[in-house]
């Protein structure tokens, strides 16, 4: 046992010492750089105990030395960081971290080291820093808060974040079950067994690596055998069943509305080597459960006495779990301090394992339960009507030397003779709190139970059924009966099973009869004053009984105020050990009973869950969907500089080697103006509408009229929302009398299709129109420039592209170099221009064919930025640039596209509202800067009158501004108040560098006003 | 997480499979009388909402199933769905509407 | 009111802090007040404070159904900024932000206003253009904020993912250096203490069950603790606005939805600034306690449950793991929901009504906390003078009639 | 047609070696053409015309499909079906449909290139797909012929259970999303990440 001085021999006493330990193997690990060893089965906490390490961390505020208190999820003190570099993870509960070979762990919140932490100085000044002290100070001088705060921030926090990105993966999993059993202890297994027998699909989850809960550390027999034997056989039966799924290392993190549960499965934390085979570190389960059985057990409460936070004070249940399960002794000599019978189990187990016990100190004057009698019979010294009042320590508070014990009477000061008992650990029990967290996440209400002196589910909430200790049922036979009946009943609810049950379908159990608990919320220290002795309630956040009393005294009387003022229950353990004790302390301070004080709301998750798991598979290159157009690989191969547009990635421009973005854009623009360019416009929204009322629908969704459009022709349309603001635009083509093809903006494709469906289904269900989005069916390319026709005519095909045959704003269907195409003669650049659509799987090939055909005509691919400049030169708007959701078509000078004849279209009535119909609104104009080289910044504002400094009245803003290589100067479009009446005026744009750009208001068409270029 | 069953196609799913379209039975004045819509009526149509604490009639769409819209009655406090009915059906009489909202608890489109 | 200072703290330490008295009284409601404010959240308490301080109205009461500061004031992610696009929004949020600057001194209660800087990332060309526009507008309105490039973003926030090859590379950010955070509970507590000291009755656990009016004017309220007469009634009850205004027969352009938020476990400082990433939908800052404070989206349906739900949280956390890769192994400690009132244009309502003496302040949606001082200031002035304060005027109910929406979502998908 | 260069959505990944440690097999099915068919089951003329043109009845039951010869008809909505047919035969079938449907209120639209089909096959196919969708693929209703539109990996998709032994699903995704979904499947389908939900299992430790 060398190196593990506190390891107990195997199978002492009742034969369970170190039950789960594989003593044949040793595991090496480190803590704060020190090499240590443990065994498979150990947690870091049990291994540290075995190695005699009691000081494991420093508290949040006072930096007091702290040791392990618990054995599971409720641990407030033993927070460590585990792993290195990208795998470094802070704030892990040592009680739940399973040991693996090479595990590196470190203590937290101390500097330079755990033993000589400089932060301990806070403890010396603790009187100056009671609850809420920061609200009262650090206010002078006014500018200094950031200075103080810097130090406060550095002192706060617990562990540190990783320095590198996380190399591990995560994933999600969905599941549906009839019955979800949360908790794999005796109650959970009994419920699962009867639910499965009734034919339900059952999932059982437990946060531990093993099932069985406290079966190995509780008294009582099932079918006359130790509980673990029944657990073993039940688990085997359930594992063999087709309709059962058992999960360990999985917490039920949250319960949400409609019985939707979030589970976190820790897949590789206990064995990181699994990741090499592709296992995710964590798997987040989203479970739809028809019924939930909550068998989450109970959490033991500590007792509130002076210096109850010293390393060596631990929960009574934890003490026996360390002995029974891990074969380690919590110390050399202990005292058990209790107000209930359960802690006697600890006294018995410790004594059986040969751990010396000085005394059981029981506040009750006449405890009479069966375990008490058993302990007395075993020769354990029990003192009654007494309490542990204080703890004496050495090693700067890190090691217990003795405790003080004195006669205790609730509500009065400690009097009488005080005794010192030498010991180095104290196992405490203040009773048990049902773990109702999950029950409360959604809407479950709890009620106060006088016997338990705690809250338990009030059962009025039918989505989750609590059983066993979680329901306040502790007697073993009653617990099994309740769980077993519940399992069958909820299975019946879920699957309507008709399986008959009899009483003999459940195992019979027996357990010692327990005596009554006596509530103890505060044990005063001896002497004249309690002051100066800290009685901790919330260990992790260093909230003492005095802090709670101070909050109450200052008028923070609502339990939520007290919680927020003192930070009670807001630490990483979310108050699992502190909530009820705090309410108990407040009964004195507020002079009211616990049920009247009430409890705070439990929030998900039950224990913290990793952000990585929440993100799941959607990380790195799978973070968000990327949509690719058919010639995507060509764009990549040709050095496209992509930009994200919605979910799409589109080429912004195609820089050649040595090109800047600016060079590339200018080259692309000029190639369109002078020769020919090719644009991948596949992202353009395409929606087909068919049916006898298709034209009628279009007349209602567009501001202009489509019923008059001739077959084979297209028309530009504007779509408003019901508030009258411009929402989308595009060219719609009539394919047949009852058949149209609508083009939308790239970003609007899905939205507009959904919008049309909504109107058709919810408002105009009498209209006969089918709407089919076909964006993805077609690759679509714009071929624009004086040579566009030549390029197309270079290719074999049956479409006549000549000016006479193929008019502007018309479309033809045919073949081009063999590919089936829809050709549209439309122009967004003002040049001679066609858009060619072909089924997407031919898109890449047609793209290549067009480039090849255009090679001798100087063809170049152009990107979205050239597209934007080209259209701006022509004064064409882009929805989202010139409009921003507050702009009407009239503001944009598009009144010609707004019908005055139609009775109704979407947005028509809203356009008549006073503010929208007002004169002198901001109107779209062009701007020419006085210095032609000066390009106005995007979004720059014009002012009514220049002043030395702000504020200045703003009269409008630049919506688009570019260097136009075509006209050889800067151009801009802007929305300016009453702009159309101000043509020729010069307006001022004060910039952030102090410069003022002067620009003349002009018509927004900068190039080829007559439209000669596109009509050739 | 809301669990929803589409009354049109029977698909069951959670709220990520459906789309909430907000309050149901809002009448669109322009659809019925385009020449005579007051500013008040247009404001009510665009902005005024029932927003009850309790039973609420809504439009939902089976976004990942059949793509159809339907009506639902849902409690906005417990979030329970109380009933589903067709998108062209008027509100079921079984449940009591929010009294303050009675003037707009009409079908979204008159004449259906 | 006992003044707070390091000296008073030291003096009280000597006696183990036994001499501190209550920060506010727990008065019984009087039969009549000059004005009654319903709702003791930040906005209601600030309104009371400024009514007393700026307008000398001290015979007033604030009625609260539960406990003061228990609604969205205590549930939000504490971000303070004023870099809004529309003139009207800029004005009220900048008034609020500037009042925050010395609120601790004014209230003699440390509200921990911490102007650590707010960064709004630009992750698409469109977003970049939109924020450039906002920056020009803010500068000319006198709000201090500026565009910064990726290198400066990285300098201000070293944990940010600044790779070129990620899904939405950072193109820059819009940076408001004097934006930041404050301690949310302290805002409510500080205003409550200040108002109480001037004689305002803050009456907790007092639910309004009816509103009385006569001839088109307010005459009083009925409460769970009896009838109270008043001629001025101000409703400031985010999450219950519709219900309260229904009592007066005023229908509101409001829908209540649940906004989701969460915090991580506390860690040592990793991020000094507030970062908002609107393209991917997430924002994050770190509290003085060390928790990463994260805002999620709102659930897309009416919801009064005040409970956490998961889809919005998942969406946000996924975005933030991408934006700040080192948080992957940190953990969500706690999530919750708050009921927020959303208006048709997502901007607030500070308004008189058709009923004489009835005032309403609501509809702050996801952005109410940052506005508290400005909202209280302008609303108090409106109540005291029976006419809209110039900053409140654009936020009147009448704007829905004439179509004068104040829509902040127009330029970019700006989350609050 | 034969000399036209056809490139399916995932053709650029065809030459890639799949990782050896996948627990399912993944393939692109690119030889199916598709027609989106709209019409009302309440209109006997439409039903008769569609049935005659397709040679198989339209599946009226939600989430079902019908097959005859080369033609499969997937239920998409109460008034919408996705007809799949071997590539090359779609124009003839479409013409037949259009002719038969005549002036009934209906719409048949060639959408052959709008989607691609990813075939996921193997004993773990259900659980691999359930990593990306909340639909319960282990429900007994998921039998051969079962079809459902769903959200998979945050992408709108349709899923058809083709046959069991081994379990084989066809996942229909819009073309532009195909590469993303493929990547996503590669990430969750590794053997080390296998999930066995329900069924006999190794008993956990006690």
SSE order and pairing:
The complex is a heterotetramer of chains A (1016), B (112), C (416) and D (206).
Chain A: E1 27-31, E2 34-38, H1 44-50, E3 57-58, E4 65-66, E5 79-82, E6 89-93, E7 103-106, H2 121-124, H3 133-136, H4 145-155, E8 170-182, H5 186-197, E9 202-205, E10 221-222, E11 225-226, H6 227-240, E12 244-247, E13 250-256, E14 260-266, E15 282-294, E16 298-300, E17 313-315, H7 316-324, E18 334-338, H8 342-352, E19 357-362, H9 370-377, E20 382-384, E21 386-394, E22 399-407, E23 419-422, E24 425-429, E25 432-434, H10 437-441, E26 446-449, E27 454-457, E28 464-466, H11 476-495, E29 509-510, E30 536-538, E31 543-544, H12 545-553, H13 559-566, H14 579-590, H15 594-597, E32 609-610, H16 611-615, H17 632-637, E33 641-645, E34 648-653, H18 661-674, E35 676-680, E36 685-690, H19 694-701, E37 714-720, E38 726-736, E39 739-744, H20 749-763, E40 770-773, E41 778-784, H21 788-794, E42 811-816, E43 819-824, E44 833-839, H22 840-854, E45 859-861, H23 864-873, H24 908-911, H25 914-917, E46 922-929, E47 941-943, E48 954-964, E49 969-977, E50 986-990, E51 996-1002
Parallel strand pairs in A: 1-7, 8-9, 8-15, 9-12, 15-28, 17-24, 18-19, 18-24, 19-20, 35-45
Antiparallel strand pairs in A: 1-2, 3-4, 5-6, 5-7, 10-11, 10-29, 13-14, 14-15, 16-25, 21-22, 22-23, 26-27, 30-31, 33-34, 35-41, 36-39, 36-40, 37-38, 38-39, 41-44, 42-43, 43-44, 46-49, 46-51, 47-48, 48-49, 50-51
Helix pairs in contact in A: 5-6, 5-11, 7-8, 8-9, 12-13, 12-14, 18-23
Chain B: E1 3-5, E2 12-14, E3 19-23, H1 29-32, H2 39-46, E4 55-61, E5 69-75, E6 81-86
Antiparallel strand pairs in B: 1-2, 3-4, 4-5, 5-6
Chain C: H1 6-14, E1 35-38, H2 42-55, E2 60-63, E3 79-80, H3 87-101, H4 103-107, E4 118-122, H5 125-141, E5 146-148, H6 150-156, E6 172-176, E7 180-181, H7 184-197, E8 201-203, E9 208-214, E10 217-223, E11 226-229, E12 233-235, H8 241-247, E13 254-264, E14 274-277, E15 282-286, E16 292-302, H9 311-323, E17 331-343, E18 349-352, E19 358-362, H10 372-385, H11 399-402
Parallel strand pairs in C: 1-2, 1-12, 2-8, 4-14, 12-19
Antiparallel strand pairs in C: 3-7, 4-6, 5-6, 9-10, 10-11, 13-16, 13-17, 14-15, 15-16, 18-19
């Amino acid at each position: 046992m060398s190196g593990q001085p506190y390891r107990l021999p195997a199978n002492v006493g009742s034969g369970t010492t170190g039950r789960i330990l594989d003593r044949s193997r040793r595991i090496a690990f480190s803590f704060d750089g020190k090499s240590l060893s443990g065994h498979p089965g150990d947690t870091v906490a049990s291994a540290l105990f075995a190695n005699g390490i009691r000081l494991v961390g420093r508290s949040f505020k006072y930096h007091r030395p702290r040791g392990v208190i618990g054995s599971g999820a409720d641990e407030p003190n033993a927070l460590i960081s585990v792993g290195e570099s990208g795998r470094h993870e802070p704030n892990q509960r040592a009680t739940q971290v399973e040991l693996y070979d090479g595990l590196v762990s470190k203590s937290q919140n101390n500097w330079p080291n755990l033993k000589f932490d400089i932060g301990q100085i806070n403890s010396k000044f603790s009187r100056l820093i009671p609850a809420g002290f920061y609200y009262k100070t650090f206010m002078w001088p006014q500018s200094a808060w950031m200075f103080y705060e810097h130090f406060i921030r550095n002192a706060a926090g617990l562990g540190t974040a990783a320095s590198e990105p996380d190399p591990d993966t995560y994933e999600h999993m969905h599941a549906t079950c009839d019955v979800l059993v949360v908790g794999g202890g005796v109650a959970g297994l009994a419920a699962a067994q009867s639910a499965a027998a009734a034919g339900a699909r059952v999932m059982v989850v437990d946060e531990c690596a093993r099932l069985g809960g406290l079966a190995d550390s509780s008294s009582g027999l099932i079918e006359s055998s130790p509980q673990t034997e029944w657990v073993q056989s039940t688990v085997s039966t359930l594992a063999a069943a087709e309709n059962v799924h058992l999960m360990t290392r999985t917490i039920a993190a949250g319960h949400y509305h409609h019985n939707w549960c979030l589970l976190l499965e820790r897949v590789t934390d206990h064995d990181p080597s699994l990741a090499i085979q592709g296992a995710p570190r964590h798997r987040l389960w989203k479970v739809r459960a028809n019924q939930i059985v909550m068998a989450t057990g109970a959490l033991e409460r500590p007792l509130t006495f002076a210096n109850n936070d010293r390393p060596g004070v631990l929960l009574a249940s934890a003490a026996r779990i360390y002995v029974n399960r891990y074969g380690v002794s919590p110390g050399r000599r202990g005292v058990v301090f209790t107000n209930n019978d359960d802690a006697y189990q600890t006294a018995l187990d410790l004594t059986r394992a040969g751990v010396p016990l000085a005394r059981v100190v029981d506040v009750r004057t006449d405890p009479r339960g069966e375990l008490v009698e058993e302990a007395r019979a075993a020769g354990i010294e029990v003192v009654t009507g007494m309490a542990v009042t204080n703890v004496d320590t050495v090693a700067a508070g890190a090691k217990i030397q003795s405790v003080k014990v004195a006669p205790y009477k609730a509500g009065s000061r400690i009097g009488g003779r005080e005794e010192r008992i030498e010991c180095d650990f104290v196992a405490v029990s203040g009773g048990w709190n049902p773990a109702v967290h999950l029950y409360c996440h959604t809407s479950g209400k709890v009620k106060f139970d006088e016997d338990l002196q705690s809250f338990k589910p009030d059962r009025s909430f039918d989505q989750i059924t609590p059983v066993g200790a979680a329901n306040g049922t502790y007697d073993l036979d009653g617990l099994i009966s309740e769980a077993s009946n519940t399992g069958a009943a909820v299975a019946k609810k879920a699957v309507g099973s008709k399986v008959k049950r009899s009483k003999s379908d459940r195992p019979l159990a027996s357990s010692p009869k327990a005596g009554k608990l006596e509530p103890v919320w505060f044990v005063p220290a001896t002497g004249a004053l309690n002051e100066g002795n800290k009685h901790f309630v919330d260990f992790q956040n260093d909230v003492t009984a005095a802090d709670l009393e101070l909050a109450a005294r200052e008028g923070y009387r609502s339990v939520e105020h007290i919680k927020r003022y003192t930070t009670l229950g807001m630490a990483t353990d979310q108050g699992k050990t502190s909530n009820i004790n705090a309410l108990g302390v407040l009964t004195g301070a507020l002079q009211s009973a616990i049920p009247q004080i009430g409890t705070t709301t439990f929030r998900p998750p039950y224990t913290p869950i990793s952000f990585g798991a929440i993100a799941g598979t959607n990380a790195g290159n799978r973070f968000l969907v990327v949509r690719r157009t058919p010639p995507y690989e060509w764009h990549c191969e040709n050095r496209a500089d992509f930009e994200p547009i919605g979910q799409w990635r589109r080429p912004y421009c195609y820089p050649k080697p040595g090109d800047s973005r600016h060079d590339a854009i200018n080259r692309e623009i000029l190639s369109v103006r002078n020769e020919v360019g090719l644009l991948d416009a596949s992202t353009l929204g395409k929606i087909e509408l068919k049916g006898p009322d298709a034209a009628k629908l279009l007349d209602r969704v567009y501001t202009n009229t489509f019923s008059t459009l001739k077959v084979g022709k297209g028309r530009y349309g504007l779509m408003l929302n019901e508030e009258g603001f411009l929402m989308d635009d595009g060219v719609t083509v009539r394919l047949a009398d009852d058949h149209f093809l609508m083009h939308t903006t790239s970003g609007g494709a899905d939205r507009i299709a959904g919008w049309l469906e909504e109107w058709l289904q919810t408002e105009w269900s009498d209209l006969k129109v089918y709407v089919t989005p076909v964006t993805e069916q077609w690759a679509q390319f714009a071929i624009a420039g004086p040579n566009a026709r030549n390029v197309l005519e270079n290719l074999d095909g049956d479409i006549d592209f000549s000016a006479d045959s193929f008019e502007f704003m018309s479309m033809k269907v045919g073949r081009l170099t063999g590919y089936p195409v829809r050709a549209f003669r439309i122009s967004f650049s003002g040049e001679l221009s066609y858009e060619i659509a072909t089924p997407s799987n031919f898109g890449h090939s047609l793209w290549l064919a067009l480039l090849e055909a255009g090679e001798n005509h100087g063809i170049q691919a152009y990107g979205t930025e050239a597209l934007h400049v080209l259209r701006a030169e022509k004064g064409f708007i882009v929805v989202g640039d010139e409009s921003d959701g507050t702009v009407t078509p009239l503001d944009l000078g598009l009144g010609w596209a707004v019908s005055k004849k139609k009775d109704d279209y979407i947005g028509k009535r809203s356009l008549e509202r006073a503010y929208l119909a007002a004169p002198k609104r901001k109107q779209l104009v062009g701007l020419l800067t006085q210095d032609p080289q000066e390009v106005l910044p995007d979004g720059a504002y014009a002012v009514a009158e220049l002043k030395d400094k702000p504020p200045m009245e703003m009269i409008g803003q630049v919506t688009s501004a570019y260097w136009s290589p075509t006209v050889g100067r800067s151009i801009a479009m802007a929305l300016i108040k009453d702009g159309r009446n101000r043509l020729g005026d010069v307006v001022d744009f004060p910039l952030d560098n102090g410069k003022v750009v002067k620009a003349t208001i002009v018509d927004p068409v900068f190039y080829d006003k007559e439209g000669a270029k596109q009509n050739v | 997480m809301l669990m929803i069953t589409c009354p049109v196609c029977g698909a069951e799913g959670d709220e990520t499979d459906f789309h909430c379209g907000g309050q149901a039975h809002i009448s669109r004045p322009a659809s019925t009388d385009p020449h005579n819509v007051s500013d008040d009526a247009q404001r009510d149509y665009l902005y005024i909402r029932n927003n009850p604490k309790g039973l609420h009639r809504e439009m939902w769409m089976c976004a990942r199933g059949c793509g159809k819209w339907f009506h639902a009655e849902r409690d906005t406090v417990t979030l329970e769905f109380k009933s589903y009915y067709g998108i062209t059906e008027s509100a079921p009489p079984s449940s009591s509407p929010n009294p303050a909202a009675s003037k707009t608890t009409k079908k979204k489109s008159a004449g259906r | 009111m006992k003044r707070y200072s390091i000296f008073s703290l030291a003096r009280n330490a000597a006696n183990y802090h036994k001499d501190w008295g209550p920060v506010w009284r727990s008065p019984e409601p009087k039969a009549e007040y000059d004005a009654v404010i319903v709702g003791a959240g930040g906005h209601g308490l600030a309104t009371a404070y400024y009514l007393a301080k700026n307008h000398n109205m001290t015979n007033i009461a604030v009625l609260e159904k539960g406990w003061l500061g228990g609604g969205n004031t205590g549930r939000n992610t504490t971000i303070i900024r004023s870099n809004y696009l529309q003139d009207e929004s800029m004005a009220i949020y900048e008034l609020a932000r500037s009042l925050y600057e010395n609120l601790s001194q004014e209230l003699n209660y440390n509200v921990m206003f911490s102007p650590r800087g707010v960064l709004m990332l630009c992750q698409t060309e469109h977003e970049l253009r939109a924020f450039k526009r906002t920056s020009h507008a803010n500068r000319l309105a006198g709000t201090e904020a500026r565009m910064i490039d990726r290198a400066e973003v990285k300098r201000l926030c070293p944990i940010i993912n600044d790779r070129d090859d990620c899904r939405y590379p950072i193109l820059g950010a819009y940076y408001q250096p004097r934006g930041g955070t404050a301690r949310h509970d302290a805002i409510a507590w500080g205003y409550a203490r200040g108002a109480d000291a001037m004689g305002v009755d803050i009456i907790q656990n007092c639910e309004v069950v009816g509103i009385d009016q006569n001839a088109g004017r307010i005459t009083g309220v009925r409460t769970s603790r009896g009838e109270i007469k008043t001629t001025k009634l101000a409703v400031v009850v985010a999450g219950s606005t519709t219900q309260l205004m229904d009592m007066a027969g005023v229908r509101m352009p409001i829908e209540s939805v649940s906004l989701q938020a969460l915090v991580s476990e506390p860690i040592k400082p990793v991020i000094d600034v507030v970062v908002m990433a609107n393209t991917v939908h997430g924002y994050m800052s770190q509290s003085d306690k060390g928790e990463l404070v994260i805002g999620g989206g709102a659930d897309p349906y009416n919801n009064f449950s005040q409970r956490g739900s998961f889809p919005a949280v998942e969406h946000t956390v996924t975005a933030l793991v991408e934006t700040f890769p080192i948080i992957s192994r940190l953990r969500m400690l706690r999530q919750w929901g708050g009921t927020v009132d959303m208006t048709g244009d997502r901007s607030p309502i500070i308004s008189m009504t058709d009923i004489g003496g009835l005032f309403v302040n609501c509809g702050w949606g996801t952005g109410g906390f940052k506005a508290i001082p400005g909202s209280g200031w302008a609303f108090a002035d409106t109540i005291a003078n029976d006419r809209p304060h110039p900053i409140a005027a654009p936020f009147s109910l009448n704007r829905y009639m004439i179509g004068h929406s104040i829509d902040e979502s127009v330029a970019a998908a700006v989350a609050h | 047609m034969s000399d036209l260069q056809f490139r399916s959505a995932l053709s650029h990944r065809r030459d890639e070696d799949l990782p050896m440690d996948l627990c399912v097999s993944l393939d692109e099915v690119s030889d199916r053409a598709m027609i989106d068919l709209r019409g009302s089951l309440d209109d006997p003329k439409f039903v008769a015309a569609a049935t005659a043109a397709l040679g198989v009845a339209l599946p009226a039951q939600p989430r079902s499909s019908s097959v005859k010869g080369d033609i499969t008809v997937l239920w998409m909505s109460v008034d919408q079906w996705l007809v799949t047919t071997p590539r090359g035969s779609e124009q003839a079938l479409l013409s037949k449909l259009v002719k038969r449907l005549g002036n009934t209120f209906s719409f048949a639209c060639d959408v052959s290139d709008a989607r691609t089909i990813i075939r996921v096959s193997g004993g773990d196919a259900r659980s691999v797909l359930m990593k990306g969708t909340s639909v319960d693929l282990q429900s007994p209703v998921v039998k051969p012929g079962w079809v459902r539109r769903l959200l998979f990996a945050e992408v709108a998709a349709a899923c058809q259970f083709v046959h069991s032994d081994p379990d084989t699903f066809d996942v229909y995704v819009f073309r532009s999303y195909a590469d993303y979904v493929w990547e996503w499947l590669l990430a969750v389908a590794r053997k080390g990440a296998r999930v066995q939900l329900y069924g006999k299992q190794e008993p956990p430790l006690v």
